[in-house]
């Protein structure tokens, strides 16, 4: 068994597509219309195009707002992405205007940082020494 797909709820799929592809560097994998305005929109890492897909899922369900607002209020990331070097990725993203709620922080062998994805979520990036 392996993880094939996971998702994040987003306020605006077009805005999320731009942020996740143009800013974070993911690559669009699937973009299929669902209903009148929603899409089955997934992105993948360019390093693993056949790897785990991230679904940029519309946040239309009434429970989503309460759930995400509570996580953001408490500073809890909805998802975590692995990077080779958190400090370098922090500098790159910060230079692109990404707002971080936690600057790089070393916790034992792991370094993390947390940013706002502009679509209603906090996302953590993490790296371990090789």
From TrEMBL:
Pfam annotation, one family: Glyoxalase
Signal peptide residues on this chain, from the entry's feature table: none
SUPFAM superfamilies per the UniProt record, alphabetical: Glyoxalase/Bleomycin resistance protein/Dihydroxybiphenyl dioxygenase
What is the name attached to this protein's record?
Answer: VOC family protein
Instruction: Write down the Gene3D superfamilies for this protein, in alphabetical order.
Output: 2,3-Dihydroxybiphenyl 1,2-Dioxygenase, domain 1 (3.10.180.10)
InterPro entries reported for this sequence:
Glyas_Bleomycin-R_OHBP_Dase (IPR029068), Glyas_Fos-R_dOase_dom (IPR004360), VOC_core (IPR037523)
Which lineage?
Bacteria, Bacillati, Actinomycetota, Actinomycetes, Kitasatosporales
Domain VOC stretches? 2-128
